[in-house]
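Query form — protein ABC-2 family transporter protein

QUESTION: What is the three-dimensional structure of this chain?
INPUT:
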Amino acid sequence: MAAVLHGWRVARVTPLGELHTPPRMTAVLLRLTVQVVLVASLWRGLYSHTGTTAGLTRDQAVTFAVLAVLASRLRELDQYAGRDTVLQHMHFGTIVYWYLRPLPPQRYYALRALGEQVYGLAWALFGYVVCLAAGVVEPPGSAAVAGVFAVSLLLGQWVLHYVMLLLDQLCFFTIRNNSAMLILIFAQNLLSGVYAPLWFFPDWFITLSAFLPFQATLNVPLSIYVGRIELSDVGAQLAIQAAWVVVLALFTRWVWRLAARRVISQGG
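ANSWER: The structure tokens for ABC-2 family transporter protein are given below.
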């Protein structure tokens, strides 16, 4: 019971920073609304003189793009304002406290990320219900599609957790990595389908992305939702997502061990 209570306290660290700052929540709501309106208008405008492009109709493309915006809220909390990023902890030297607590740093990181994703999921669900009621996005094609999409989205967020963890672990091995972090985050958004569905990119780009974990985070579940990936092909896609979860989990566990050797507690 004590472990559950302790885990709950860790998981709510970053969300509490948002909930106790109403202006920040208002800014999030305003930004999310503007993003949805602009993205929906953009894709409708792009399809004004065409019916189907890259295997997607206008409604499918708009649904994909809007859901990508909503899904971005799952891990888009303002940790920087609360000095809660790994980059900041490394800069100020406070990362050492992660290794002095009874709770292992990898467990603390996982619990904190879980709290962030649950909080972000509440925002995403709220936006989804509003967009669905307003007719901005289409509902899933069937109950089976909705169920498979939910499973794929869960696996995708699991993969995303490890991808973001790798980006944070990079901070242990570089002195100044602000630019590297920005480049890697841009690559993650580009290759996962946040900016545009991967189906619109050249064949060589799609082939290259197939060997990377990024498309498993978002492009796969959203493609299932809009029907770009048929139910008959879902099994292989879910297997690939699960494989990436296992591979990244083992790799990040090894990197945690390497990172621990680079942390020094000065002054005793």
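ADDITIONAL NOTE: The beta strands are 52-53, 56-57.
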